[in-house]
């Protein structure tokens, strides 16, 4: 835009209302009501940056953005200057489901929580970028994604006091993938096991709660040697991921019903899982796209569960079964959720004892608190209230204690759910192949509610009466 216009970039929540002069001013004819550029500071591969520049040139030459036919939010196909080839897909934040300018009848206030409260409205585009950044080495095949500023009369205008205004928007820009089909157009059994596993590994890590047939595209090809048809899955639409809660059901993740998930992970997949660094991934997303800590903390939990389960020989299906809720009982927490809640309580107790130098008082009943304990609509898995109805704050010692308690509990869950053949292989390896080895130090620990015999007690230890029969 001409510098004389005085426009500049101003971020208000998730909407951009102005912008500085573009580096494409020389393109003729120039449409001053449109433009496109990568958001400064957000990672963007060079190939994707070139695609953004080509799309901006096309917009300025009058090539209109095309609204996609399906979905719950505004999705625009951006083409090249000739209008013949689609280069990218733009999803404005303020046109997402539940956002103010939603064009499909699902509007609402920005940062509101709808039927799927895990991610607030107008925050999905950032998660699209996060999923791409977490797909290290393109392991799952997430298309290149970044954040852009965009302005065009073809986008839903800002409505203020009955008037409409064309404004700059912020949204996700993803490289367009040439595909002809979606996953529901073929039987699930025809897809490569590796493709299903790799997408599943990503979904577990980011706690995706909207992996349906429509957001797995199918690239149809031919084998160079045999000429046989090949089908490859391409995962898209990751806005419903990295939530602040884990109330995900089996039906929210379509691959839970696929036979490939019951096949063991391959060696390359196991190496990839073992090499993941949950803390580094959380730090990356905090720095690059500014995701809130609750979603990043859950990323660390799910990644550590995946690693513990894979190390014990669990399949992708077994990983999901422990992490997701049953469709028949969607209000019943999953096994991983139960562990998170227990570790929260344990970490808080240990942190308070250290902080106060001993036991701390608790309130068994408070009539005022009893009216406040009901969780507000935006509550997440890490938002808990004490007995007085006060929200518990996460301090650094508290978080360190939480993860310190979490690790052995996740390993215990994986050990309890490990298949018999995996346990026998593990025992044979640890004993040199001779005879089954005894449990490790971690495996010898006693879990609450287990039927294992209690360890021997010292002669001076006090044992409650209801446990004396088992300990002698």
Short description:
It contains twelve helices and 13 strands. The chain is α+β, with helices and mostly antiparallel strands. A hairpin with an 8-residue loop joins strand 4 (66-67) and strand 5 (76-79).
Describe the structure.
With 472 residues, this protein is an alpha+beta fold. Helices cover 33% and strands 12% of the residues. The protein contains twelve helices and 13 strands. It has helices spanning 46-60, 124-134, 193-206, 267-275, 278-288, 293-311, 316-323, 335-356, 367-372, 396-417, 420-430, 465-471, and strands at residues 11-12, 15-16, 35-38, 66-67, 76-79, 86-92, 145-151, 158-160, 163-165, 169-175, 181-182, 216-222, 229-235. Strands 3-7-10-6-5-4 form a six-stranded antiparallel β-sheet. β5 and β6 form a beta hairpin. α3 (193-206) packs parallel to α7 (316-323). It is globular. The N and C termini lie far apart (84 Å). The model is unreliable at 1-5, 10-29, 360-378 and 432-454 (pLDDT under 50).
The unreliable regions are: 1-5, 10-29, 360-378, 432-454
What's the story with the biggest beta sheet? 6 strands, antiparallel
Classify the beta-strand content into a percent band: 5-15%
What is the SS-derived class?
A: alpha+beta
Q: What is the N-to-C succession of helices and strands?
A: EEEHEEEHEEEEEHEEHHHHHHHHH
Mean pLDDT: 83
Rg, rounded, reads 26 Å
Strand order of the largest sheet: 3-7-10-6-5-4
Q: Give the N-terminus to C-terminus distance in angstroms.
A: 84 Å
Name the overall outline.
Answer: globular
Q: What is the number of helical segments per DSSP (H or I, 4+ residues)?
A: 12
DSSP strand tally: 13
Helix amount? 25-40%
């Amino acid at each position: 835009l001409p510098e004389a216009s005085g426009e500049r970039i101003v971020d208000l929540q998730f909407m951009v209302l102005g912008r500085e002069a573009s580096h494409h001013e020389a393109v003729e004819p120039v449409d001053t009501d449109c433009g496109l550029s990568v958001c400064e500071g957000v990672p963007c591969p060079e190939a994707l940056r070139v695609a953004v520049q080509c799309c901006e040139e096309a917009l300025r030459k009058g090539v209109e953005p095309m609204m996609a036919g399906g979905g719950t939010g505004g999705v625009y196909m951006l083409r090249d200057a000739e209008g013949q080839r689609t280069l990218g897909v733009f999803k404005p934040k303020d046109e997402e489901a539940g956002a103010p300018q939603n064009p499909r009848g699902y509007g609402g206030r920005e940062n509101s929580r709808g039927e799927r409260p895990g991610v607030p409205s107008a925050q999905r585009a950032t998660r699209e970028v996060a999923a791409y950044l977490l797909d290290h080495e393109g392991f799952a095949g997430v298309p290149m994604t970044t954040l852009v500023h965009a302005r065009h009369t073809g986008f839903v205008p800002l409505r203020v006091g009955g008037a409409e205004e064309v404004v700059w928007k912020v949204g996700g820009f993803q490289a367009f993938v040439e595909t002809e089909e979606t996953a529901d157009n073929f039987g699930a059994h025809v897809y490569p096991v590796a493709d299903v596993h790799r997408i599943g590994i990503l979904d577990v890590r980011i706690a995706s709660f909207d992996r349906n047939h429509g957001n797995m595209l199918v690239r149809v090809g031919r084998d160079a040697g045999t000429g046989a048809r090949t089908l490859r899955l391409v995962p898209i639409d990751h806005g419903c991921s990295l939530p602040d809660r884990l109330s995900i059901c089996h039906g929210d993740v379509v691959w839970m019903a696929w036979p490939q998930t019951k096949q063991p992970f391959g060696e390359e997949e196991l190496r990839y899982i073992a090499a993941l660094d949950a803390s580094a991934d959380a730090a990356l997303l905090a720095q690059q796209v500014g995701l809130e800590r609750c979603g990043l903390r859950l990323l660390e939990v799910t990644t550590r569960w995946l690693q513990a389960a894979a190390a014990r020989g669990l399949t992708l299906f077994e990983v999901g079964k422990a992490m997701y809720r049953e469709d028949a009982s969607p209000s019943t927490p999953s096994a991983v959720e139960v562990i998170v809640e227990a570790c929260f309580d344990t970490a808080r107790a240990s942190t308070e004892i250290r902080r106060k130098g001993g036991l701390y008082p608790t309130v068994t009943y408070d009539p005022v608190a009893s009216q406040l304990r009901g969780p507000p609509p935006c509550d997440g898995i890490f938002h808990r209230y004490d007995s007085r109805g006060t929200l518990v704050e996460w301090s650094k010692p508290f978080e360190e204690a939480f993860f310190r308690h979490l690790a052995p509990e996740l390993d215990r869950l994986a050990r309890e759910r490990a298949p018999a053949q995996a346990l026998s292989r593990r025992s044979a390896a640890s004993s040199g192949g001779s005879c089954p080895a005894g449990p490790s130090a971690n495996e010898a620990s006693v879990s609450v509610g287990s039927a294992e015999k209690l360890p021997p007690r010292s002669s001076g230890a006090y044992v409650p009466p209801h446990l004396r029969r088992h300990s002698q």
